[in-house]
Amino acid sequence: MKARMALMLAAWTVASGRVMAAGPAVGQESGSAEGGAAGTLLIERADSWLRWFDTRPLWAESPLAAWMAWVVPAAAILLGLGLGRVSSWVLGALARRCEARGWSVQKQAFTGLVSPANVALFALGLAAAAANVEALDTSREFWGRTVLLLICLAVLWYASNLVFAVELLLRRLTPGIESVVHRSLGPLVRKTLRAILWSVGALFILNSVFGQDIGALLAGLGIAGLAVSLAAQDSLKNLFGSVTIVLDRPFQVGERIIYSGYDGVIEEIGLRSTKLRTLTGNVVTIPNSNIVNDPVENVGRRPSIRRIMNVTITYDTPLEKIREGVEILRNILEEEGIREPIHATIDGDEFPPRVFFNDYNAESLNLFVIYWYAPPVWWDYMEHAERLNLRIFEEFEKAGIEFAFPTQTVYLAHDAKRQLVVEMLSKGMEGAG
Predict the structure, then answer these.
(1) In the list 152, 187, 273, 292, which could disulfide-bond 241, CB 3.0-4.6 Å?
(2) How far is the C-alpha of 80 from the C-alpha of 151, rounded, in Å?
């Protein structure tokens, strides 16, 4: 491994030296600001780097020079093909090893490199062959461009294969989500990235390999892209909204939410909209661009169901009965079969039920009851609430404590408790007369 790294470092040093040496010459020949650019170097001197593979000075004076003129190019091509097969075997073994360890992204990185590596190694073998054939000296630029084109295609191919890892990473970022957007967003992102990648790669190849001026083409693409973005801005907003929903996960399919007055269960999360099944059975379609910008109350993620209950008793209830009523409520909440789900520990905090005589209502005395039911299973909560209500009714009936209901009291003029007030009012009326 150390020897291989040393050889690679040496090769890179030599290559860098030759490129740096060729740079000033190219800049002088071009006579423009583009002379030192990488694109100009590739266009104007595409054949110069083939000289790195020229081994003819080593065997030109040999008695076997005539044979070597054919053996070296053929050996270079065969070596390129052979190295491609070896790289395929090595990369395949690494991919299988990653698969055995559950490294899906690394496996995809090695698997996607197999074919591009074959093309790149064949291109290097072709470069070595073309550099050692005397008859091809006059067309060295053509062969340099050809090899450069193959290498660029290999790089683009590998980058295109790596795009598949985006879908794997998206699944890791959104574990447990099963929705339309989750199933369709990955392929959509993959295809979009591949289209952008190959478009940029094609422009690079046109400019750097074939020496074409792409300024006008870029300007045209910019205008076309602006027109398309303006025409499809609503669709793009909804698309980015769906991406936000998947990454931020404010809700999932099957969860109950309250949004803009609608109370229901999420039925589907699509690329354009989210479908909400209300409690009345209707389906509401909400654009994703709206739902990510407005408050959403996620009922499905509440840790418990809080119940506030006001037990009202009549005003003529004696003080002892009021205290007895509070004690009855507290004892019922501690009974077996009732206390278990309302003494839950949520996020490390205990939430015991509370009972207080807390207020004087207009028509009753108020006994305040609050408790938290967990886990928040609605129908279990309703069954528990019914059992609790029946026990309160039963115990209050035994104790002779009456529940209050809306009443209105009428005071008569001859009521002994109100006689003084009536007399005062009557005297006041006589004085006014």
Answers:
(1) 292
(2) 13
The answer to whether residue 426 is domain-embedded is no
- Look at residue 274 and give its three-state secondary structure: strand
Instruction: Find out whether 368 and 310 touch, Cβ atoms under 8 Å.
Output: yes
- Cβ contact 274:284 at 8 Å: no
| 261 CB-contact burial (10 Å; exposed 0-12 / middle 13-18 / buried 19+) | exposed
Determine the Cα–Cα distance for residues 386 and 272; give it in Å rounded to an integer. Answer: 43
Total of domains in the chain:
4
Q: What are phi and psi of 178, to 5 degrees?
A: -125, 105
Q: What is the pLDDT of residues 373-417, one digit of tens each?
A: 998 998 999 999 999 999 999 999 999 999 988 766 666 656 665
CA pair distance 115, 185, nearest whole angstrom: 27
Please name the residue ranges forming H helices in 178-313. 180-208, 215-231, 233-248, 288-291
Q: Which of 284, 300, 316 is the last residue of a domain?
A: 300
- For tokens 């404590």, the residue is 401
Nearest to 217 by CA among 229, 230, 207, 232: 207
**Same-domain status, 23 and 77:** no
pTM beyond 0.70, yes or no: no
Look-up: residue for tokens 């309302």? Answer: 342
At 247, the pLDDT band (50, 70, 90 cuts) reads confident
pLDDT digits 0-9 by tens, 49-72 = 566 666 666 666 666 666 666 777
- C-alpha span between 44 and 15 (Å, rounded): 18
Rounded CA separation 272/274 (Å): 7
Report the distance separating Cα 175 and Cα 274, nearest Å: 19
